[in-house]
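Quarterly update from the structural biology core.
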Amino acid sequence: MVESQTTQRSLLTLLSDFGDRDVYVGVMKGIIAKINPMLRVVDLTHQIPPQNIAAARFCLINAYPYFPDGTVHVAVVDPGVGSKRRAIAVEFADGFLVGPDNGIFSGVLNQTPAITAVELTNSAYWLTPHPSSTFHGRDIFASVGANLASGVSVKQLGTEINPASLLQLDIGNYKETTTGILGCIQYIDHFGNLISNIPGNYVQNQTWCVQAAGLTIPGCKTYSDVKLGEAIALVGSHGWVEIAINGGNAHLQLQINWQDALEVIMLLD
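Predicted structure, tokenized:
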């Protein structure tokens, strides 16, 4: 039975705010390789802004659907490391999440029902029964993820908990107004694009614009619909309304930041 599970769970991903300057990511990969050198490991990103749980949440939402069933996702953005926050693993019909219970998984949990959740209390699957108070990515999560991806049942990893008890991260909800949809910036990508929490289906087949920071920005389909250096609103490949600068950096040029408000305005044709 373990052999068939191992075949199904041969892929493990890593996401963190560790960057690539230090050895932290490499150490986690070394632990994974010692447990199962046959596992394939994919780096989603290690450039999450330090301690930015909301950014990690967003990246997981956008990466999770593109991986094969049975993939184990280990995510470590953990400003509460060493505190009483729980270390958890969550099983879904199509994959697994391993990391801290700090809201990092709340986006996936909102989109995909959990089958089982456990608090990682079984130290037999940790690197050491006496983990560091500052590096659970090494001492708990990498080891647990490798064991899970090698066929260990999620229920063997610890104490079963109610998935409804897992922490939800409050990033602000979008809401309808008399003129459109009011939301906020939930993520800023490498290009400085300002990605909102407003789903793109609200503007499908509509004439629309975005108001933010005292600006009115036209809603278009592609970056090239405006001149170089001009601001544009559009639906990105992730499916959310975003603000961009054609050939520029909207975050720097418009001085709009995480959690800042914006409103999609529906225009009459």
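Residues 2-165 form a domain with the Rossmann fold fold (CATH 3.40.50.10790).
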